[in-house]
Amino acid sequence: MLKTPAQLSEEARKVIPEVTVADVAPTGQRPFLLLDVREPNEQAAGMIPGAISLPRGLIEISIAKIVQDENAPIVCYCGGGTRSLFAGQQLKNMGFTNVKSMAGGFKAWTMAGNPVG
Length: 117
Description:
The protein has 117 residues and is of the alpha/beta class. The chain contains six helices and five strands. The protein has helices at residues 5-15, 21-24, 40-43, 59-66, 83-94, 105-111, and strands spanning 18-19, 33-36, 52-53, 74-77, 99-102. A five-stranded parallel beta sheet has the order 1-5-4-2-3. The longest helix has 12 residues, at 83-94. It starts with a helix and ends in a 6-residue tail after the last helix. The relative contact order is 0.25.
């Protein structure tokens, strides 16, 4: 039987912790790498300041160009919080040990009135 996107998201949530927008909000230097896993056309509407662009479809190919430390703290975000769970799950599958996803994604970030670059 095929799994639904909701079922896949729930499976990912079991292995990828979620952080809130407040956990990511700009209060000085972030103690983690912030990855924007949205597509370039979505990023054209703005990105969280300090985030690094790495679309979900390029994670396996390009992550080593950004970070080589498998223990580096990483927080992924997307538009609404689902693709970032999947991106985090893939990073974990690749060997990264400290990966999280920002619940609610870019939509929650902007709705909270946070800055966009």
